[in-house]
Amino acid sequence: MSQPVYRICNLLEKTLKGVPLGTNLGLFQLQFALVSGRFLESRGAVFPALDNLGLEADAVRRSSAALRKGRWETQELLDNWQEIVQGEGYFTPHCHGGYRPVPCDLTGFRRPELKGNPAKHFVAEVGKALPAIIVGIAVAVGSVGDLEDSCHEGSEGVILHGSKRRFALPRLLIRWEQGDTREADVQTRLIEQAGKTLTPEEVAVFDAGFSLAEVRAKTPRFVVRLAKNATVRRNYLPPYKGCGRHSEYGEIVRPLARTRAGKLLEATACDATFGWEDEGIRLRAEVWKDVVLSEDKVGAVPVNVVAVFDPRYKEPWLLATNLEVTAEVVWRLYRDRWAVEHLPLVAKPMLGCGQAFVFGEESRLRLPELALLSGNMLSYVAATCCTVATGFWDRMCRATCGRLRRVLNRLDFSELPVVGEQLRKKASVTSHLATGVEGHRRQKAPKAGQGVLQSA
After folding, report:
1. Do both 285 and 354 map to the same domain?
2. Residue 448's pLDDT band (boundaries 50, 70, 90)?
């Protein structure tokens, strides 16, 4: 059996530290079904995925019960996972200008037939919002893998050890709660929780779907992408024209030119211009310093706006931040935001959890969270272990989670390495419980006064 198989079983066992006995075995089986692609074959159904793993019927039921009503929290698993990754030393956090990026994003797991679900998430493929389970994600960005490339000849082809690659380590998963009525409620809690967990060296990074006003109010340090037609104001009053009412707002600043109703609206002259090179490409940035939001009066908390012009992209990047750093640092911080997109890309199309067939109050929320965590573990093991080829034809294989998933998919659960003492079935006494029809027969509730001993 290959090294990645032993390694991923060991990591799964360590992640489940603290989960009650019996429940941890059920979650171990469920997570191995996720990382091995069984949910991809069952199209999101839990029982067929566990049955395909080679489990007995009772084990399938116990694993499903661990998902539905087990006493565990996803955040505890995330904390264990962060401790494991940081302790192994493969993960090196990215740092730009003395700050480490913490990207935040929202993702949706489609549930078109789920009743009583008011949540909707925009799907770019169809161009509209569809019913989904919303999950907010905050990650730490770094690099994992070997510092130098190396390769050797294996029995199934050339085995490559990948170089350093960008990796997102999840630190927060914000779920949909009972009182939420729209996606913005999850977004608000994500901003608040991300802002509270930031250290003095960390910066929260958001895309254009987040409100700059809300981020500025709830996050100590941030980088936010703005819409290309966004406007801001100067943080000082314009000169008095000699008649009329005195101005309360600063002059409008339009960072990017645009056309409206056939009329060209020119961009406002910038305060400073900077340039640098990246991979041989010359980039240019225009900066507007100490500006406020378009709805703010003079004296509000200022921000800096940076427009980055990259010839590799059709549209410039328009970024806002409250950091006093160079335009290049702001650009590099935002560029690391793309790492957060990798978690749902692995969990949904790679592991088959883009849609699910679970309807319990807890399982409908827990399964997407476990899919995100399991996909992250699969990517980490693929990047830090010897690469395993898919077959004899895969002679120049790379360390990808898809190749590792196909290797795990060939295994039966009975073939896995012997797990530790803490992962075993709980020997509960059940002989006193009714079985069969008597075990689930419904009884009418006694009427008032019946079934109570009357005093003489």
Report:
1. no
2. low
CA-wise closest residue to 99 among 201, 183, 181, 194 = 201
**119 and 233 together in one domain:** no
Give the residue ranges of DSSP H helices in 157-243. Answer: 183-197, 212-218
pTM above 0.90, yes or no: no
Token pair for 80: 């264990």
**Interior CA angle at 368 toward 364 and 374, to 5°?**
140
How confident is the model over 237-268, as pLDDT tens digits? Answer: 888 887 888 888 999 999 999 888 888 889 99
Give me the residue label for tokens 């898919």. Answer: 390
Structural domain contains residue 37: yes
Domain count, the chain: 2
User: Does the residue 221 lie in any domain?
Assistant: no
The answer to whether 318 and 224 have CB atoms below 8 angstroms apart is no
- Is residue 415 predicted with pLDDT exceeding 90? no
Structure tokens belonging to residue 233: 């104001």
Residue 351 and residue 406 in one domain: yes
Integer-rounded Cα radius of gyration of the chain: 27
Mean pLDDT of the chain: 86
